[in-house]
Known about the structure:
Layout (H helix, E strand, L loop, with lengths): L7 H11 L3 H17 L8 H11 L6 H8 L11 H8 L4 H17 L1
Helix pairs in contact: 1-2, 1-3, 2-3, 2-4
Amino acid sequence: MKAPPNNDSLNDMIEHLCWGDLENSKFFIEDIIESIKIKRTMISDLGNHFKMLRGLLLIKDEMQEQRIRISLNFEEFSVRQCLFTHLENSTMTYALYVLRWLSLFGDIAVAD
């Protein structure tokens, strides 16, 4: 099994584009989360996705809290399912996937 590619440069570019820009942040966060949801059965392939999302959520600017709200779908009413509801519905079938999400938000909580 080969190691996943290192996407540090891509992550840095996306973080740069999102610094101080809520529209870019929302675009990338929603896109990454949708990709993670689609690939939830391939948890071993999602390391770079979670790393990229973590980097976006930890950008230290005036929009950090709004990015976290966007990732949880708390920013505005949406027809999309709230992330917590999605995780709750996935618990029995995709336990490792749910644990990976919980780990991500645990890391973010202690990173500050």
